[in-house]
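Obj.: predict assembly geometry.
Materials: sequence records (below).
Method: joint structure prediction, all chains together.
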Amino acid sequence: MSRARFASSVFLLSALLALLLGLVALPDWAAPLRPFWLALVLVYWLLEAPDHVGLGAAFVLGMAADLVFGTLLGEHALRLLVLAFIVQRFRPRLRFFRIGQQALAVCALLINDRIVSVAIRVFLGEGLPPPAFWYSPISGLLLWPFVVIAIDLARQRGRHAT
Amino acid sequence: MSLSSNSTLRFSETQASPLRLLAYMALALALMTADVRGAWLAQVRQQAALLVGPMYWLAAAPSRLLRFAGESLQGRDQLHGENQRLRDALLLSQARERRLAALADENRRLRDLLGGTRGMQLGVRLASIIDVDLDPGRQQVVLDLGANDGVAVGQAFIDADGLLGQVIALAPGHATALLVTDPDHAVPVQVVRSGLRVIAYGTGERDRLEVRDIPQSGDIRVGDALITSGIGGNFPAGFAVGTVTALRQDESRLFSLADLKPAAAVAHAHQVLLVWAQRAAAEVGPPSTVTPERDSGEPGQP
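Observations (raw structure tokens):
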């Protein structure tokens, strides 16, 4: 697949969808459980298409997230960069994990991401977040298999159509 | 597709390189500092807002649908009851407002007699909060009015019960606003009972504000209501901010801290009013003897 075609493919769609899902209003009890959709999607593409998606893509996605979520410009970018780097480091191993193990690894990545996020916040002098802040990796763990299946299906359909 | 010709080479290519990571991280950190320190990135945000606006609209679609469905599925009785209740409430507030108008009139006349400043009037505008959740670490909301509707940065907005926050960024079609509960938010307030002037800070929790550095001699008690004092000019005076729920000593034991429960329904507000102070349009009451060139500029008006 050429670079241009890849850019217009499922990758962009899934990233856009992840941004939208991050915005959709949830009821109060569910809000702390909102998974970091963008991270899930990014991890998928880092594992599946490493020659198209790398640190650069992570940075660009992060900037887009910062603009959309109204955070400091560069905050999401930094978090996704750290995430992308770790995934790249362990890609050969992660790639051949079974889906359950992979979900656990993703959960660990998301917890690490929360720690990075807290570090940024403390550095900016905003203090520690409430305990509910730490619930979100759990939903990431549970949703990982579904994200993989959904994007796999979308890619297969895309391939058949062309 | 990733299994193309030179797959052995590819493994070495895609090995994570710390150098590139460092370069990108430096870039991200530089952007963050620039965003904290300077204002020039506001331009970037403004441009990007054109793209972000449609996304907010899309993301709010599900809850819009839900609300619509909820409204159209409500029974006739329920709607009738609600209508009745609203009509009663309107009647009550109209009566109250008429009394207030009389008082405001009297107040203005007295001020004129004193030859003091010309009365400030309240400009109001109805807006609604677009149903999207921004980053939970920052207490921000998106309003459906923007620069095209005459909204200006710094305008306060309220719900029926009290102060909600202020506008911090503008796009043509929407505006981003900071809630009173954001850790970066501070509002000058006044204790209704004693007149003590203090500052209420956000805490990052949706149901708690904090007043710091109250002198030990300060007259404040649990249960006291706090309203905006109007000092600083950003917030028109007299809007309810919260009630004191607890008082404690701070670490130095020289000052006390008060916890407030916000008066407004911060987590559930949907319809809000943008408010700002503007010069009174027409002089009411007896002609004043003060010089006539006061009509010059209206800097406060957006």
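Conclusions so far: Chain A touches chain B through 50 residues (CB under 8 Å).
To do: check interface contacts against the pulldown list.
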